[in-house]
Each structure stands twice: as C-alpha cells, then as structure tokens.
Write a structure and sequence with these properties.
Elements lengths: L2 E3 L2 E3 L3 E3 L11 E5 H6 L1 H5 L5 E5 L17 E6 L6 H12 L5 E6 L3 H10 L3 E3 L5 H8 L16 H6 L3
Parallel strand pairs: 3-4, 4-5, 5-6, 6-7, 7-8
Antiparallel strand pairs: 1-2, 1-8
Length: 163
C-alpha cells in the first residue's frame, strides 16, 4: 500500500506483525496493543524502533508511559464510518503530547485526509487515494473555525487576537 507523508509518497520501512506471527530479529515493526502489553519488556529491549497499532476499541491511555519511546503509532480505520480513530489521534497528540509518526491505516479515503491531518495524523497508508488527490485534499481549506491537534490558529482566534 502506498504511504503518504509530508505531501509525498515515501518508502515504508515498517512491518506490522500479527499476534500469531513470530517477531523478526531486526527491522522496524508494529504490533497490536494487546501484543505490546503482553510482550512489553521483550519489545522495548529490541535494538530497533517499535510501533503500536491501535484498533478502534483500544484505549490510547495504555500507551501513556511509553509515549516517548514509540517511533510510530498506527491507528486502524476498519471502515470509513468508524470515527473513533480521530479521537484516539487527538488524545495522543493533545493530551499525551506524542511527537512521533501518527499513521492512519485501513479504510482511508481521500475525503477524510484533511480531517485526519487536523486530528494529528501525519502519515496515511491508503490504496484508495492517489498522491495528487491527497496533496489536493490537504490544501482544500485555508482556515478553520474549530481548534485541532494540527495547531493551526482558528478563525475565531485570528479575529480576536491583538495583532
């Protein structure tokens, strides 16, 4: 699947390892939150970067103590109508101050890209959107009324600032 980050297609150096598969000895891997919880010591002792994939029902609070040690957090969108990933992204960025890569995976549609970006996602794994379409989506609006994790200044705050 194409990986789009910083407005361009990039090589994906990460591999998701299912719960029933053995861990590879090297390379950057992501695992489910359940596997991360059950094998935390083993995973954190690896000499490679580690990532976690959150499913919609997973609680991001469980990653709080490890937030500075995770290079990637993937948030799964199993279907486009499930918006829980937006809330997970907001919590990770705004409440926990996560600075690493936050990647939307699964059923990621072009029409959702801008809102995902505003929620804190900075990478998108999608088969359903071409690169030019994603770049276009990220630039569709230049101003927003509501504050978000992307830290852009809202229209309200611009209007009422003393500048």
């Amino acid at each position: 699947m194409p990986l789009i980050k910083d407005g361009r297609e990039v090589d994906d150096i990460w591999a998701f390892v299912p719960d029933d598969a053995p861990l590879s000895p090297g390379g950057c891997i992501t695992v489910s939150l359940a596997r991360f919880r059950s094998e935390t010591e083993l995973l954190m002792a690896r000499n490679t970067e580690i990532g976690v994939r959150l499913d919609p029902a997973d609680d991001p609070d469980e990653l709080e103590e490890f937030i500075d040690r995770l290079a990637l957090i993937e948030v799964s969108f199993p279907k486009y109508t499930d918006g829980r990933g937006y809330s997970q992204a907001q919590l990770l960025r705004r409440r926990f101050g996560y600075k690493g890569e936050l990647r939307a995976v699964g059923h990621v549609l072009r029409d959702q890209i801008l809102y995902m970006n505003r929620s804190g996602f900075d990478a998108f794994e999608t088969e359903r959107a071409e690169l030019p379409s994603v770049v276009e989506a990220l630039k569709e609006f230049s101003a927003f009324y509501q504050p978000a994790a992307d830290e852009s200044v809202s229209v309200f705050h611009r209007r009422h600032s003393k500048d």
